[in-house]
Amino acid sequence: MKNTAFYIVALLAVLASCTGDLNQVPISSATTSTFYSQPNDFLQASNAIYSDLRGYPDRQLNLSETRSDNLYAVSDGGVRDWEGINSFQKSIAGNVYVSEAWSTNFNGIYRANVLLDQLQKNGKLITDVSLKTRLEAEAKFLRAFFYFDLVRFFGKVPIIDHPVTANEALSIPRSPVKDVYTLILSDLTFAATNLPETYAAADKGRATRYAAKAALALVYMTRSGPTYDIEGPGLGLNEWSQALTVLNEIIASGKYSFLTSFTNIFSFTNENNAEVIFDVQYANGLTPVVGGTFPWVLVPDTWFQSNGKATQGGLTIRPVSVDLLNAYATADTRKAFTIQSGYTYNGVAETRSFVKKYVDLTKVPTNNRLDWPINFIVYRYTDILMLKAECILRGATGGTQADVDAIVNQVRVRAGLPAITNVTLSQLLQERRKEFVGEGSRWHDLVRSGQIETIMTAWIAAEDTQKQMQPFQKNYIIYPVPQAELDTKPGLYTQNAGY
């Protein structure tokens, strides 16, 4: 749980007012000159950028987890927004989850651009040179973070690296993915060099240089994924060795370690543990509310009611796929913690399963479903280790099959499973699936792996018992440009193929 003052500032800062996605209008010069008058103003501006991370976990659950073969999210309680995501419907350009991904990320980019602009113009007000450099590095990390999220979901997006007026924004087209990556890599390289390794307790949760390195490694790996002949996140590059180098730097730092208990990674009483490299931080009981909502996103309301708790907002069940359930061995201790296998409500048995990874029934907010106090881990040490194994299997120099086996078996033993040898890429992908289910990584893993067409096609054929899903097409690897963006200035953007 984050320091209270950090969150109050983050949501009440002058710069925290919403801005339109295309309407990248800078704060008026009068307001800017009034606001940026002392070092603390720049800190508030930095906090305002972090505040745009609040919905990041929900987005990954809605657009990555629900899109993947982890869930068969066909609703039996009315039409739900997630059904079009799960079923590969072509008419989702107006979907609220798709629109949120575009607008919130660009809002964060806008705020980062304003801070970077003001650091350049008024940075002399900050006499602490190290603080000024750190704020620049934080802003660049977050700008890269938001842009990477956009690239993975939409492919081409407009590059806006400075504050622009509304009219200027209306003339900025989408740029090729490779050009967006150029900005991302530049920002992350600066951040990885200039961010501190750690922070004092009051600033816990800010990006460190190892958070930047984790993001940098994942960018290298994502760029190295196949293109699928679409303008998506993969460029078919062979940057597995570059990624491995960065991952090894995180491991060699000694700042993080592998917890022996899987459940303790996600404990409400063990936040900021040794596994956590970067997370989205929440605090409860504050005004305005700055808690999380992601714990209940994949959880049906009737389950909370069956346990004597108030409804939270997850509505009807988004069932875990039979394929995922069958992937767990009987002895795998991760399954019971991650997945609720049925329950009874008002005397009626619900036999389907759902993801409950972030729910502790003793911690359910009593007054506000928007106020869960658990942090969402974006990058954790187990992920770094398994990404290292993936790079080695992809041919990165500096690793061996023995290294891969050791990493995977460390994860398996923690889960109560026997060791295996000669781990393949497909086995690693399956092990990642069981380890990170509910963390929003599955869709991105499938895309990066090059196996998404084969896996999703076979999965739909076996899983779609209600015949609700469209046949998988490679165009569905990315989402459509939100219809609101197309309508803002007709002709500025071209809709992604397949929608």
Automatic annotation (TrEMBL):
It is found in: Cell outer membrane. The keyword rRNA-binding does not apply. It comes from the Bacteria. Pfam families: SusD-like_3 (PF14322), SusD_RagB (PF07980). Residues 91-221 form the SusD-like N-terminal domain. Transmembrane segments: none annotated. GO terms for cellular component: cell outer membrane. Keywords: Cell outer membrane, Membrane, Signal. Residues 1-23 form the signal peptide. Residues 349-499 form the RagB/SusD domain. InterPro entries: SusD-like_N, SusD_RagB_dom, TPR-like_helical_dom_sf. The keyword Disulfide bond does not apply. Belongs to the SusD family. This is RagB/SusD family nutrient uptake outer membrane protein.
